[in-house]
Amino acid sequence: MIVERSASIETPHSSNATRNACRLCAPLGAVWAYRGIANCVPLLHGGQGCATYIRRYLIGHFREPVDVAASNFSEQTAIHGGAERLATSLHNLAAQYNPSVIGVASTCLAETIGEDLPFLVRRTLGRWKGDGPPPATITASTPSYAGDHASGYRAAVRAIVEQLGGDRPGSDHRIGLFPPMVSPADLRSLAASVRAYHCEPITVPDPSEAFDGGAWADLETLTAGGTEVRDIAAIGSACGLVGFTNPAPEPAPQDLLHERYNTPSVTLPLPVGLTACDQWHSALETFSGTSMPRAIEAERARLLDAYRDGHKYVAGRRAALYGETELILPLARLLWEIGMVPAICATGGDAKGLRRELDSLAPAGAEQIQVLSESDFMDLDAGIDAYGVDMLIGHSRAYHLAQARHLPQVRIGFPVHDRMGAARIRMCDYAGTLELFERIANACIERAQDGNSVGYLTM
Ligand code: SF4
Fold first, then answer.
1. CATH number at residue 329
2. Domain that holds residue 446
3. Residue 170 falls in which region: left (phi positive, over 0), alpha (psi -120 to 50) or beta
């Protein structure tokens, strides 16, 4: 291993085979994004197995029904191409769901045989045989061998903005938001903050209701909620656009819109932790021309107070973070802010962007972080052996590792299949940070209690 003079060391995947990877498939991220557009049906150009796997993962996490259509590749399609099946699927979906939008994402097999998705969709729409005009149709290229669920999500959000975005006048009191894959509760918190400054949010995408809605009296084919197409068509005339750290080389949605319509835009760290929340609220003050409301000042004060109360439990503790780059970055930043050490950062995707961002964020004198690139849980296990941690912070799939190592596990991100309430786990904004901080502090206390014979004490 080469030790460089930077805040992090990147360790590549250690074997030729990946077992239990820290990542999920790319079209899953695209489905997540498409579910955040009002009256949108996601369609995978590929096999039924891909749609079933994605449905199973999303339903297990959110405990809500999630419809995902597939063009249903067969052995014949794999040889002769799926143009006809795609055309049939688009017509069937339009007839059965009457959607405003169909969001199409490619799968591994479709990309491997070289399907030109934008061309096939254009040709189908040009020869439309359905009753009435065809729905708006978005396409995103999401082969899983070229990325993970987070890159699939980013590709779909870019496609939504490129293909539906516009600058229809009349939205000058609105603020466009481009969040990463955060929970419905976090999406609601971000939107509530925008409203606290007397502006309306246009969140692209907003699956908060589709993934965390109420009980239905009757079956609904298209779930309620999501960002309206007419709002996306007006996003270029918003008074401001806020996007969050983009680890990818492709331009972020706020940059695309800024370039196209000269809309004021800013790219911020996700508001997790006091400093990042301060930057978020400062941007809201600038775009809205309104000072921070008293209720938000009070939330900020409560977070600061909790930091003071909990510092003695968390200071110097070490954690392993794992998941997608967009989750690891704000978590690492938070850990540094509260005096903990993000000793290991493991991602199933390419860690170049992660490492670059971590190097720029690390406070002076911070311990060097071990960044595990394209990693699986075997790599994470080896990293724990070598560097030692007090807890795991990430999704449920490290459960077996946490059990084997007798480590507390703070569940956050996706998927959380083995606990209730995944849709309502918060980390964003002052109040969400406070909840996460207390969960981390309590994990530190739990570990200290479990490791000593006295156990419970009044603290
Ligand atoms: S084949 Fe590719 S797209 Fe389909 S489920 Fe597997 S990884 Fe995902």
1. 3.40.50.1980
2. 8-20+297-450
3. left
144 lines ligand 1 (CB under 6 A): yes
Radius of gyration of the chain (CA): 22
21 lines ligand 1 (CB under 6 A): no
Say how many Å lie between the CA of residue 25 and the centre of ligand 1.
Answer: 6
How far is C-alpha 349 from the chain's CA centre? 14
User: Which DSSP string corresponds to 219-254?
Assistant: --SS-S-SB-HHHHTTGGGSSEEEEE---SSSPPHH
Start-to-end CA span in the chain (Å)? 43
**449, two tokens:** 């209690």
Domain count, the chain: 3
pLDDT at 263: 95
Question: Please, are residues 419 and 63 in contact by the beta-carbon 8 Å criterion?
Answer: no
In one letter, which amino acid is 112?
T
Structure-block tokens of residue 282? 């400062």
203-243 pLDDT tens trace: 999 999 999 999 988 888 888 899 999 999 999 999 999 99
Ligand 1 in reach of 331 Cβ (< 6 A): no
Atom of ligand 1 nearest to the CA of 27: 3
**Cα angle vertex 359, ends 428, 316, to 5°?**
65
pLDDT, one tens digit per residue, over 307-329 is 999 999 999 999 999 999 999 99
In this structure, what are the phi and psi dihedrals at residue 299, rounded to the nearest 5 degrees? -65, -40
Domain identity same for 275 and 366:
no
What is the arithmetic mean of pLDDT over 285-290? 97
Biggest alpha carbon–alpha carbon distance for the chain = 75
Residue 169 belongs to a domain? no
CA of 144 to the centre of ligand 1 (A): 6
pLDDT tens-digit profile of 116-146?
A: 999 999 999 999 999 999 999 999 999 998 8
Extract the runs of DSSP E, i.e. beta strands, from 122-230: 136-140, 174-178, 200-203
